[in-house]
Amino acid sequence: MYAFDYQRPASRDAAKAAAAGADARYLAGGQSLIQAMRLRLSQSERLVDLGAVGDLKGIKVDGNNVVIGAMVTHAAVASNADVRRLVPALAELAEGIGDPMVRNMGTIGGSIANADPAACYPTAVLALGATIHTDQRTIKGDDFFTGLYETALKPGELITAVSFPAAQKAAYVKFKQQASRFALVGVFVAQAAGGVRVAVTGAKGHVFRATEIETALGRSFTPEAAKAVKMPSTGINADLHGSADYRAAMISVIASRAVAAALAR
């Protein structure tokens, strides 16, 4: 690990000041960033730890939306009564991330900002049509993830909260890599007044919407309709865990399981 300056401010304004004028990174749960730094895959002059910024940790209900502070842990999302009532699929997604240590340390804001191509939360952002709130603006979920570990965030921009609207029916299912529990293929399906949205993780360089499956489910919201869609393998990841054709086929299979789970609620 390279040498760096560490600061732990107690307020959002102090955090912004600490990050200004330096090659700085915000430290949320640290479950990805610290590991990358230990392997010397990431280097920053300064880490600004957000752990003491209290107003980034709350969960509240705003009309038909659950607004989750950026520093809320996965475990807190999974156990929160309002999340479980309004967006139960999101609570179940959080409950399936990593292991107990990761769930008690990792945060929703850190996960979304890191934009790992196999992370779970990005599917909820896209499928539920979430809104990312920062200290500068609001960003639609559809516009947030732009590439491999890349987002629409500007240098120094700080995620403050994520707002998730409730859906009529929704579920997330992932075919996970057994050691890491990251998704080899993960699919979040949501049916709301505006239609059906289907988001996929683990299959490309970043999360994406499976519009072919959305169209099929718009006609018939059934597991059979999702499974019948043949997803193209163009741009799909291939590695030792599976070929592009295999992953493409698994998207439809996992989507059908997510639809079945959503209908079973």
Give a short synopsis of this structure:
The strands form four sheets. Strands 4-5-10-6-7 form a five-stranded antiparallel beta sheet. With 265 residues, it is α+β, with helices and mostly antiparallel strands. It has twelve helices and 14 strands.
Describe the structure.
The protein has 265 residues and is of the alpha+beta class. The chain has three domains: 5-49, Uridine Diphospho-n-acetylenolpyruvylglucosamine Reductase, domain 2; 54-165, Uridine Diphospho-n-acetylenolpyruvylglucosamine Reductase, domain 3, CATH 3.30.465; 169-263, Enolase-like, domain 1. It is 35% helix and 25% strand. It has twelve helices and 14 strands. The strands form four sheets. It has a five-stranded antiparallel beta sheet with strand order 4-5-10-6-7. A four-stranded antiparallel beta sheet has the order 11-12-13-14, sandwiched between helices. The longest helix is centred in the last third of the chain and has 20 residues, at 244-263. The mean pLDDT is 92.
